[in-house]
Amino acid sequence: MMQSLAKKRIAVVGLGLSGLATVRFLQSLGIKPVLMDSRIKPAAIEQIAPDKVDGIYLGQLDANRLAKMDMIVLSPGLAPSHPAIRFAVAQGVELVGDVELFARFCQKPIIAITGSNGKSTVTKLVEAMLQQSGIKALAAGNIGLPVLDAIKQQDIDVFVLELSSFQLDTTKSLHSVASCLLNVSADHLDRYSTMAAYAASKQKVFQQTELAVFNLDDAATSPQDAKKTLGVCLANASYGLVQVQGETWLSLAGEALMPVAKMSLFGAHNQFNALVAAALALTAGANRAGIIAALQHFTPLAHRCELVLKHNDITWVNDSKATNIGATLAAIAGLKPGIKGNLILIAGGDGKGADMSELQPILQRDVQQLITLGKDGPAIAALINNSIEVESLAEAVAAAAKIAKPGDMVLLSPACASLDMFASYAERGDLFCQAVKTEVL
Q: Which pLDDT does position 318 carry in this prediction?
């Protein structure tokens, strides 16, 4: 593989985290790639030594130059449908992503995880379950550590990969001991022409997997072509919830595992995530003791149904990572049963072309007060009566604080991307947490 790549003219297109990792990986093989980015000044361009690459071209992508390459390694942030990319592919240039290169070089077992929502939590849970079982596991991919940086770590037994649909679009050689598709809900419809096209990208996680784990409650996750499958849902006695002496337990492979009350995560959606993670981890060698330890001590990921504050019996929850409708629906469904009083929801942002009316049934049924902001805030506010529209997150928190009473929950779960108002969902979540503590304490 190294000799094959060394003979190719390779362009790395897109110089974000994964692009820079790709550059480092290729340079470690003695390859000087051509670099391109549609931005005039990528944030980390100064990290690249000009003498170790075969040219850096910024701004509009050069279709003619790309057409002279043997291979393009495309950043997941850039669509394969970009005219310059399509032109090069039409001339016979091979199009891959960093995950495809990883798959061609990796010699260790891989667990692959995708879905519209919950994939980061499941990825980190699987990593923790394996580590607690004495297996050296490393989470990488869409979760933050680029796969081509991860592959350099030699002392790893299992790689646990979080994969986005964008990454899967340029991946065809990935072989996994187990993979899962957690759910499919409206997202990235500014990039995919239809929901069917988006779901088809997600389904690619099941290519060449030894075990396909899917969601029995979501038909779009059912494997289209897999030899061995495993369905999970909370109502499933094998991989679901069971009653043990009047208490709800997780059931793993038909055996009661532990009470859900002893999990560090809360909400029905996280009970499902825990079951999927356990199924994947078992396949890679985890034991029940390690799985239980991980579920008891796992630290919830920031901005994912994260408890910010409980004051005067009012609970404030940051779910800023809910950047699509499905994530917000899952958060409400998971949290609502545990709320004694009313649910006050803060939502809005950039809906990325999604049909916000999909929120209407659950808003009408489960949300007692809706506060909206951002680009698509008005569209969400129109779905139920008496919504409150505000201009800023601080205003939203202040409005919620005036309304909330003991027993209530205030949930930031935007159902939208953040880039219309914030640098990232993380910045949005951090500002929410700050505003809550300033307003409430």
A: 96
Higher-confidence position of 334 and 378 = 378
Q: Order of strands across the sheet with 94-96? A: 56-58, 34-37, 10-13, 71-74, 94-96
Domains and CATH numbers, the chain: 9-96 (3.40.50.720), 101-297 (3.40.1190.10), 306-440 (3.90.190.20)
User: Vertex 312, ends 307 and 315: CA angle to 5°?
Assistant: 25
Q: Is 52 a catalytic residue?
A: no
Kindly report, residue by residue over 391-438, the tens digit of the pLDDT: 999 999 999 999 999 999 999 999 999 999 999 999 999 999 999 999
- Which among 117, 124, 142, 324 is annotated as catalytic? 142
Tell whether pTM > 0.70: yes
Q: What pLDDT does 188 receive? A: 67
Contact (Cβ atoms closer than 8 angstroms) between residue 428 and residue 418: yes
Dihedral sign for Cα 83, 88, 91, 96, please: negative
295: nearest Cα among 273, 320, 264: 264
Q: Which of the four pLDDT bands, split at 50, 70 and 90, describes residue 186?
A: low
pLDDT > 70 in the chain, percent: 99
The one catalytic residue in 119, 202, 204, 269 is 119
Among residues 117, 124, 183, 188, which one is catalytic?
Answer: 188
- 208, two tokens: 């060449």
Rounded Cα distance between 101 and 248, Å, is 44
Please confirm, yes or no, whether 119 is among the known catalytic residues.
Answer: yes
> Rounded CA gap, 72 and 94, in Å?
6
Tokens of 160: 């646990």
Residues 281-305 pLDDT 10s: 999 999 999 999 999 999 888 898 8
Q: Do 34 and 11 touch, CB atoms closer than 8 A? A: yes
Identify which of 153, 146, 144 has the alpha carbon closest to the alpha carbon of residue 124. Answer: 144
142 part of the active site? yes
Give me the DSSP letters along 219-285. GGGS-SS-SSEEEE-TT-SSSEEEEETTEEEEEETTEEEEEGGG-SS-SHHHHHHHHHHHHHHHHTT
Residues 220-271: tens digit of each pLDDT: 999 988 889 999 999 998 999 999 999 999 999 999 999 999 999 988 889 9
